[in-house]
Amino acid sequence: MLEIVLTREDANTEYALLAEWLVEDRAEVTGGQPVCVVETTKATVEVESPGAGTIVQLYAEDVEVELGKTIAYVAETAEELGSLDAGAREKLAPKTPAGNRKATRKAVELAELHGIDLSTVEKRGFITEKDVEELVSRAKAAAAPAGESILAGVSTNGVSLPSTFDVGDEAGALDPGFLASLHADPDAFRGLSPPDKVAALRDAGARIGAGVELGEGSLVAAPRVVLEDGVRIEPRGTIVCEEVVAIGELSRFGPDLELRCRRAFLGAGIWGGRSVRFGGGGHREPWAMLTVGDLAFVGDEAFVNVCRPVLIGREVFLTMRSMIVTHNIGHSVLEGFENRFAPVVLEDRSQVGLGTVLYAGSRIGAGAIVASNSYVVGEIPAGSFAIGVPAKATGSSSHKLSDTRRLELARRMIDDLHELLALRGHEVTAIEGGDLRGFEVQGTRVLFAPSYRGGVNPPAVVLTLEVQGDPPEGVGVFDLLARRVHGSEGVVLDSVREFCRKRGIRFDPGPWRYPGGLV
Fold first, then answer.
1. How do residues 503-519 score in pLDDT, each as one tens digit?
2. Strands in 152-309 per DSSP E
């Protein structure tokens, strides 16, 4: 006897609608023959018979069925059919929730939470959670103040928007004639020297901070341009926005950047690799909006489609060749093909692995990690580790450390730094143990103390898990758990800070850019 089971393909979907039986109950079926149509929040699919025999249906049409359940048997012999008839069960009656409209359980719950009447959903067939979310988003957008409406109702929970998002409606407004010349003859601007590009934009009304660098062959064109101190766009970069581009201090992008969007708000201290591309189809749409939080990392050849809002939080890692897609256009929606437009959100400190694709409507929770070459089609819970096609949460992205283990790892950082400096050719003294474990380089002691309470003479740099009291002049202290640096600057302190950054520890105050040094 064969079973027809609604298999679970997505960790975020629990139920499906058995929309239609394509064969009569007790009909003869063949292997591979479509026998029913099932609708989930992601797709409408036909389910095939696993073999030949007589089908015995366990559910009626228009019933919501938990994934993993058996919906029918295929009896291969008369004996098997007889045993099924002997233990025959009544088919479950169809549900008619929320205004007699077909809807998933999650859609009904969400509609009740937000006071949504499902009879207002203009859709043929099954109402999903995504349909209700879009209704909620549209309602929020309509009720939002003007400054918030550009988010199109997208929830910012878990996302730290960059300060540039509130740059103001008039900041950096370009002279209309100058802007027209950029669009009419962009090569003329590209041909200017880097200092002349900065001067020309500033003279035309752009708000350009100190130390801004625009590389050879680069172009910046938008009605409003704000580039804060230390922004660096390397050669052949192209930034063309329909309304505004605002980039925070000390952010940099490698060669061949392409940023095309209606509104782009990028934070401070962002590091972007080479050939990063923001834009794609629909980048001029009214909803085309990009935010990237402070200290985000965008790897080489990453692609972000901005047809709908894309919110990337603080300290997010979007690694090499990863892809974000906010719309899907294929064959006609009237023929049953998917035609989806939806925002994508990466909450703070989430990570997206190499070559991973985030599909329209995806949301990666705070601190979650998606493994390389995965495909995300829904929501990944905060703090989880997800992998696969489609990506499913399989565990936690981090694990709890004991105090002993944390202390051991912190002490080991002194040994690793000592080894690195020696291999770099710097003269370092031998490591000394005791309560203050460390060594000396360029006349400065580098130490680890479980808790800093003072008593360290300058010049020194101290790594610690706890800070009690302010350090004196000439002593820099890194609070590894609070991720804050205290004290004066110097080449050794900058080098230790860069060493920690490469181990995932980024310190406030910031943003900060490594000026070069020992590592």
1. 999 998 888 888 889 99
2. 207-208, 213-214, 219-221, 224-227, 232-233, 238-247, 252-253, 258-266, 271-272, 277-279, 289-292, 297-298, 303-305
Torsion of CA 158, 160, 166, 167, to 10 degrees: -150
What percentage of the chain reaches a pLDDT higher than 90?
Answer: 63
| 3-24 average pLDDT score | 79
Tokens of 228: 């804060």
What share of the chain has pLDDT > 70, as a percent? 88
Full-model pTM: 0.72
On average, the pLDDT of the chain sits at 88
User: For the residues of 427-450, what is the DSSP string, one character each?
Assistant: -BPPPB-SSSEEEEETTEEEEEES
Q: How many Å apart are CA 248 and CA 315, to the nearest integer? A: 14
DSSP sequence for 35-95: EEEEE-SS-EEEEEPSSSEEEEE-B-TTEEEETT-EEEEEE-SHHHHHHHHHT--PPBPPP
Query: Sorting pLDDT into bands at 50, 70 and 90, what band is 111?
Result: confident
Which structure tokens are listed for 502? 């490469």
CA distance 453 to 395: 39
For 81, half-sphere exposure in the C-beta direction (CA atoms, 13 angstrom radius) is 14
Cis peptide before 97 (omega within 30 of 0): no
Coil/strand/helix, residue 325: coil
Looking at per-residue pLDDT, the higher value among 105 and 433 belongs to 433
CA neighbor of 451 nearest in space, from 440, 465, 431: 465
Fill in the amino acid letter for 484. Answer: R
Instruction: Say if residues 361 and 338 touch (Cβ distance below 8 Å).
Output: no
Burial class (CB in 10 A: 0-12, 13-18, 19+), 195: exposed
pLDDT at 63: 81
Q: Are 101 and 118 in contact (CB under 8 A)?
A: yes
Q: Residues 6-10: contacts with CB within 8 Å, 24+ apart? A: 6/38, 6/47, 6/65, 6/66, 6/67, 6/68, 6/69, 6/71, 7/67, 7/68, 8/67, 8/68, 9/390, 10/40, 10/42, 10/377, 10/378, 10/390, 10/392
For 464, the 3-state DSSP assignment is: strand
H helix runs in 69-210, sequence order: 78-86, 97-100, 105-114, 129-143, 146-149, 176-184, 186-190, 194-203
The H or E element containing residue 341 is strand 340-341
Residue count of the chain, please give it. 519
pLDDT at 260 over 80: yes
What residue type is assigned to position 398 of the chain? S
Lowest model confidence (mean pLDDT) among 33-42, 82-91, 230-239, 466-475:
82-91
